[in-house]
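Lecture notes, unit on protein representations.

Consider one protein chain, 213 amino acids long.
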Amino acid sequence: IIRPDVEGPLPVVLFLHGWGATLPPNYRPWLDHLARRGNAVIYPRYQDSVLTPPDQVLGNLIAGTRLALAKVDARPGRLVVVGHSAGGALSADYAAIAAEAGLPAPRAILSLYPGRSLRGIAASIPEIAPERIGAATRIVALAGSRDSVVGTAPARRIVASASRVPRARRSYVLIREPAVADHLGPQRASPDSRRVFWERLDKLIAEVRANRG
């Protein structure tokens, strides 16, 4: 849990790391940025290592999020979920299953270069059908034109398949800028990454908190 040093309950951002990027330093500048903007950031480690079976990671995510919400003084009613790579795929899974699991459903998800497996490798994270994502959820999914790790299909599928969500609330964006269009673009803290990813999340959070999300 990363949060600013202030009193009282805070709005929550659930930040889902990429496959194997289990430690907060992998995204630390972004996590600190979100905390400085007044958010309690939950960073659940859904795997011990890259050897964690893919079919266990969603259950680990649910358990970790439940524990964190019990510990943090937070207002999860306007929850925003952001995820990168495997975490991007899991952001959609969380949105689909949160209510059933007794957890806060997100008002918005930002899925960055999502993927369930590496190209050429059979093992993959099982999908929770995006059709189960609630109509009130805003969905933004990004893919990179130079992403040779997961490609663009997973991001397109999330947006196309979340049929309960009105079409106007689902967005697929293909990022073509060479500096950030590769798979690790969202993990960097360069000026280009801040502009393309951080600012997009800041805007989404602001819309949700202003009850426009």
